[in-house]
Design goal:
331 residues, mainly alpha, 0% strand, single chain
């Protein structure tokens, strides 16, 4: 209920901002919803981890949210819409059969192939529309947070996330093929603000995992001879080193692999070459057509019986060098 209410408020506020571009509108809307979902999903975990400092309770809470919620989410995402769609299909098929019986009783002859195509189009037009990838990205974002923000307390979370993603891939494919209308492809050069959101989550994961290690009792027992100030200083130094290492790997490892970049450049070059060759062929055909028209005009001036001479063509030059001069003037 709170999620639906805040989504309505975030949409209303973004509409009031009156953005000029759709990309800017989606950027600000996504960040509003991301902030709310981050606080709504992870505030209790931060409270347990750093206020109560109860790692056992944190593990059980993480397991409940990561496993139970992901299993239960399959029902409203796939099973319930599938049951609703199947009922709507049955209702529409029954209405179409009744209409066909009435047309048959009136003696109307309709092509059965046409009726089958029309019935299929009618049924598919009543399917719900695919509203976009926001919910799918949001689910992955929250799962990424559950796995990496508290991975030092619950390392097996990544295994449960992998199992869920395998099931989710099949579920989303089934949903797109059997429940939703066929979505239209939208060109995009990246995943937009989600890329920045995942990167910021990675930086936050470095800090939270080191903080979990710092507040864990075994660390304090092992470094009992060190003071709190020394432990805090060590935490800050290690945290900065890991962040710099993460930034360095981001710079060293390219976003697009070298072989992929070469293949993309080759494809772009081939496309430009094909366009250039096509334009050259069109220009060549146009020049040949104009030369042929000039030859017919000369025949008309000379009185060729195959081509009637017109007054407008008698003033054209008739020297043998006209074709060469004409081609040079074109080039």
């Amino acid at each position: 209920m709170y999620i639906c209410l805040f989504r309505y408020i975030a949409t209303w506020l973004t509409d009031k901002e009156n953005h000029r571009l759709q990309t800017s509108y989606e950027f600000h809307l996504i960040w509003k919803l991301l902030l709310f979902n981050f606080i709504n999903s992870f505030s209790s975990l931060f409270y347990i981890a750093f206020w109560l400092q109860d790692l056992d309770l944190l593990r059980s809470h993480l397991a409940a949210q990561l496993i139970t919620n992901q299993i239960l989410d399959q029902f409203p995402e796939t099973l319930m819409p599938y049951a609703k769609v199947q009922y709507e299909k049955w209702r529409l098929k029954r209405e179409l059969r009744n209409e066909q019986k009435k047309r048959t009783a009136r003696g109307e002859n309709v092509d059965p192939n046409f009726e089958a195509l029309r019935d299929q189009a009618t049924i598919e037009s009543e399917l719900p529309e695919y509203l976009g990838t926001f919910d799918d990205y949001l689910e992955l974002f929250l799962q990424f947070g559950y796995c990496f923000l508290f991975s030092s307390a619950f390392p097996i979370a990544a295994l449960f996330a992998l199992i869920n993603n395998v099931i989710e891939i099949r579920g989303d494919g089934f949903k797109l093929c059997n429940i939703m209308q066929r979505p239209f492809a939208r060109p995009a050069n990246s995943i937009g603000p989600w890329q920045l959101a995942f990167e910021l989550m990675g930086f936050a994961a470095v800090t939270t995992n080191l903080a979990l290690i710092y507040v864990s009792p075994p660390v304090h027992e092992y470094f009992s001879h060190a003071s709190d100030g020394q432990l805090i200083m060590a935490f800050v130094v290690i945290e900065h080193l890991l962040i710099f290492a993460k930034l360095g790997m981001t710079v060293i490892i390219p976003t697009v692999p070298r072989d992929v970049a070469i293949a993309m450049a080759k494809t772009e070059y081939d496309m430009k070459l094909a366009v250039k060759e096509r334009r050259a062929q069109e220009s060549r055909k146009e020049i040949e057509a104009q030369i042929q028209a000039k030859r017919w005009s000369r025949r008309a001036v000379r009185g060729d019986p195959r081509q009637g001479a017109s007054p407008s063509t008698r003033s054209l030059p008739t020297s043998p060098q006209d074709d060469v001069t004409f081609v040079r003037s074109i080039n």
